[in-house]
Amino acid sequence: MLIDSHCHLDAAEFDDDRDQVVRRALAAGVAQLLVPAVTAATFAATLATRERYGCAVALGLHPLYEAGHRDAHLAQLAALVAQARPVAVGEIGLDFFVPGLDAARQVAFFEAQLRLARDFDLPVIVHIRRSQDQVLKYLRKWGVRGGIAHAFNGSRQQADAFLKLGFKLGFGGAMTYGGSQRIRRLAAELPLEAIVLETDAPDIAPAWLAGPPPGRNEPAQLPRIAQVLAGLRQDTPARIAAATRDNTLAVLPGFTMAPLQAGSTARS
């Protein structure tokens, strides 16, 4: 059984067939999902996925949407974390790849959410695009209890630094591209206990969905992604599935393996 440790099931791209997406995931052998929020406006939709499907959720303010974040959203987030008890604070972090983002605002919201995670003793799901060293700096400053470095694409030195802070590293669709040599090398060489699997659906489509036109990513793609990781490591898909599942549960103590349910009313 596999866990998709990062899937935006609440995204608008799934509005027309969300139940079917979950059914396909279950049929493919994906036993559970983690759905991270990205803005205050999506908190309700994120929590609705937990109510309907029994998946795990994280709550946070994503750096890509910093222009829309407000101080009031931080207060709203704190109240919801206390009330709704997510398994992590996320998706939070820094993005220094997309032009036009306000770096200072990103840092301010990131630090405020790290403080919140520390106060509630929760792990974090961090976005680290072109910002690995800066994210590490603030993780060391605030001393959170670890979490997942989502879509990891840094160096081995940076990987080791995240591992020392109690993090697991997320690998997904980018690993399936032959040209992603650094990511594939890290996936092959890192200790297996360092790795969790993710789709980032509907984004970061694996190589077989690249198109044209590109296909929509969804959690049912995770078993094939796991097969790629097994091939890179010369291991078996069953062992990869078991290890990455156990790694996800270890780094997110609030995550339970209650069965994912398609189109039901459930709470995990």
TrEMBL record:
The lineage of its organism: Bacteria, Pseudomonadati, Pseudomonadota, Betaproteobacteria, Neisseriales. The keyword Hydrolase applies. SUPFAM superfamilies: Metallo-dependent hydrolases (SSF51556). PROSITE patterns: TATD_1, TATD_3. It holds the Pfam family TatD_DNase. One of its GO terms (molecular function) is hydrolase activity. Belongs to the metallo-dependent hydrolases superfamily. TatD-type hydrolase family. This is TatD family hydrolase. Signal peptide: none annotated. Keywords: Hydrolase. It comes from Chitiniphilus purpureus.
